Amino acid sequence: MKISIITATYHSEATIEACMDSVLGQGYSDLEYLILDGGSKDGTMARIQQCVDPRVRVISEPDQGIYDALNKGIAMATGEVIGFVHSDDFLASDDCLANMLHLFESEKVDGVYGDLHYVDAQETARVVRNWKSKPFHRALLRRGWMPAHPTLFLKKEVYDKHGVFNLEFKIAADYDMMLRIFKDDTLKFAYLPQVVTKMRLGGVSNGSLKSIIRKTREDYKAMKYNQLSNPLYTICAKNLSKIPQFFTKG
């Protein structure tokens, strides 16, 4: 089963090598790695171009932000399964992809997700927040539960059916996308109880109080778009559910 991994970059000189190493160091051979750079002016492209692995395809051109870049990657992807590894993130171990793809094949599912660690931007061995998921059932949607989006890998046919990221959302397009997908009761998902992704703190949606407030507003908008009943309850439950993540460091 072929997998396409997509990384969107912009001024990611400090982290892109670790990101790429974590993808290309996986113990899985049938891999396509797509890197979509938004026209970086720093040393990002120089670091990317040091890699001569034939599995890597690179495009560098202006875009409308990370979701636009990811949409381009989805359109380019030729794998049966698509996953994302953002340029500030890295895969937690070299068996992540093999273990996820085993579930795709053995459980005959449309999507697989796992756990995520937020780590200190400088000391990446230090876990700051532990996002531990659970097996999915649709009643969880109303409680504001979702898996960590960077750990969610989906069959390409899911995007063919449900479309790509809605660029009206600047921070919460991933949540809007997941609501669309997880509401579909014809799709089947599997949970891999393993840390799949390590995310450096300081991303767009968690970098400041202002961005957290904006993310909450966009989450609410996504709930309305996707016709969740009682979105005020869901937005409160969603935010409260994150509190234990700061006390269970994994």
TrEMBL record:
Protein name (Swiss-Prot/TrEMBL): Glycosyltransferase
One Pfam entry name: Glycos_transf_2
Organism: Cerina litoralis
Domain named Glycosyltransferase 2-like: residues: 4-140
Gene3D superfamilies named among the record's database cross-references: Spore Coat Polysaccharide Biosynthesis Protein SpsA, Chain A
Cited InterPro entries: Glyco_trans_2-like, Nucleotide-diphossugar_trans
SUPFAM superfamilies in the record: Nucleotide-diphospho-sugar transferases
GO molecular function, one term: hexosyltransferase activity
Domain of life: Bacteria
